[in-house]
Design goal:
The protein has seven helices and three strands; from the N terminus they run E-H-E-H-H-E-H-H-H-H. It is an alpha+beta fold. The model has no long low-confidence stretch (mean pLDDT 90).
Amino acid sequence: LNRRHRPGRAYELIHLQWQITTDYGIFRDLQRHRIVDAMLWQDLSPRLGYIVTELITETNNQELFDETFDLSFKLYNYLKDNGHTDICQYATLLGHRMRFTFTENLREAFHMHELRTTPQGHPGYRKVVNEMQQELEKILPTIAKQMKFINKDEDPELTRMAAELAKQLKLDKMEDK
C-alpha cells in the first residue's frame, strides 16, 4: 500500500549480484547503504578514466577539469612507481571511475531501489539504481512489477523541485493548524 510495506522474508532467499562501474563519489553514496550481503571493490585507480558531468561542460570548465585529473593521474603514477602501492590510491578523485560488486537479497532490493531513486537522491546514484532496476525487470519481470515506488523520472531538477514543493506544502499545512 505504501513505500514502507515490504515483501515477506522468503524474498531474502534470492540474491542479486551487480557489477557496477561508476565514479568514486557515487560508489561512496551507495556504500552507505549498509544492508547489503557483500560489497567488494578494486583498489582506487585513475586507470578507468573519469566522468565529466554536464555541470562541468555547461560552465565551460572542461579544460581545467581535465588538467586536474591529469595531475591526479601523474601523482598516482609517481607514487605507485616509487613503491607506494597503498598510498597512491589517495591520488584518485571522486570523479574517477571504479568497479565494484554489490550483492543484495531481493527483499532488500525493494528497499534500496525505492529509496535510492527518490527525488531527494543524487542524480548520479539515481541513474545507477534505475539501470539496476531495468536489468531486474529483464530477469525477474513479475517481481520487478511489485516494486511500485521506483522513481524513473530522469529530470533530477524537476523531481527534486517536486520533493521540495511537497515538503513545503506539508510544512504550510502544519503551520495552519
